[in-house]
Amino acid sequence: MAAAVWWPVRPSEVRGVVLVLHGGQVENTAPARPWHPAAVRMRGFVRPVARATAAGGAAVGLVRYRYRGWNGERADAARDVTTALDAVAAELGPVPVVLLGHSMGGRAALRAAGQPTVTGVLALAPWCPPQDPVEQLAGRTLVTVHGDRDRVTDPAHTRELAARARAVGASVAGIEVVAADHAMLHRSRDWHRAAAQLSAALLGLAEPAPEVAAALALRGDTAQGLRIALPHGTWSPQPVG
Asked: Which residues constitute the signal peptide according to the record (predicted)?
């Protein structure tokens, strides 16, 4: 089965796209299904992202993988995202695309970010092995959002990858969700609000929060300024220390 995009939101005139990428497993060649928990979890992001980007004519699509796992050097999820991006470009033309991915989907988004139509990546609790490349992120905007109580993917690895991405020319900001874990079930409304506002900002439809804009403006190979805290409540990120 080839990778596919399902469009829960697609206006008649599409001027931008947010592709939502769910998580998965390290190794698993069983078929991915839309009722698996990782896929269901990400459907909760569709409505808030659609509301935040509606004025800009953005479509919101869910990428369907062939397999449940990343599967080593095969990098199946990343290949599926690249195939989906090619299909979107062929169907809609060179509209800007933001990749919104969680966990394995975050890793796939980072790996596929070098595709010509991708302007930004929003990686939620991404899986960031230290050996993963970052050169494809040059010239892109990357925002990572990671819970400080995540025990599945390592927030420190996310910060390390973000610093390397900045060193090669990406604009980078990192948001730390206070008292949040990997599944994004605790404080889910905060995750949804953050993803919606950031998706709109990455498509150029809204101004990012001042702290995020300040982090994105930094350059160089330092991790200083990468971390912003998202405390409980409304979307109001704050500088960390």
From this structure: none
